[in-house]
Design brief:
The protein is α+β, with helices and mostly antiparallel strands. The chain contains 6 helices and 12 strands. The termini are far apart. The structure holds zinc ion (2 copies).
Length: 221
Amino acid sequence: MEKPKTWKLLVIMLMLGLGLYFFLSLQKPAYGAMGSAHEHSDFKLYINGQAYNFSQAKYMTETDNSGGVENCATGSVFAHMHDLDGNLVHKHATGATWGYFFSTLNITLSPDCIAMDMGEKYCSGNGKTLRFFVNGKEVHGLADYEIHNLDKVIITFGNETDEGIATQIATITDEARMRAGGTCAPRSLLQTPQMQAQNSHAKWILIAHFQETIPPGLQCA
Ligand SMILES: [Zn+2]
Ligand SMILES: [Zn+2]
């Protein structure tokens, strides 16, 4: 009975191959090189009706307010906040997701729970729900959702009605739109040296635009 055995072996090998394929395809998305993107997104977190304060030093990659100079040596630079501005996420590499961003703040996101850095956990249940909205549209979880330029994102936990959540959504800031050079676009090259000096973040864009990787420890001044 040689033939059935060969078939069985083939089927097993095929299943192993498929398993490996799905395993590999489920691996974390690869992030682009530092500076492969430069996008901004406004966001807010509400817990039981209270806006959470992300404008704390501990959530910043850089608290140095000397005009937004960024330290490119830190590990969380793919998506981060700086200048004590907790309304705005800066994304500096393609593929950076909200889950990635929050993980750099020691905050864990799942569709049903948000676990904060100090250990508090807010999970859907007992009449309260954790909900996510991108540009006013409800989405099921955010962890794997890539940060996109000008997206307005809200995470809200509580028992608010849709109307209540609409009120919360209306409080999301509009800072991304006002950012000079929303992307790593040649547009930033059009700025005069004076403008660049005034906006060192724009200067950083220029550096990121020309360098695939930035040596560790280099201050992007
Ligand atoms: Zn930025
Ligand atoms: Zn930045």
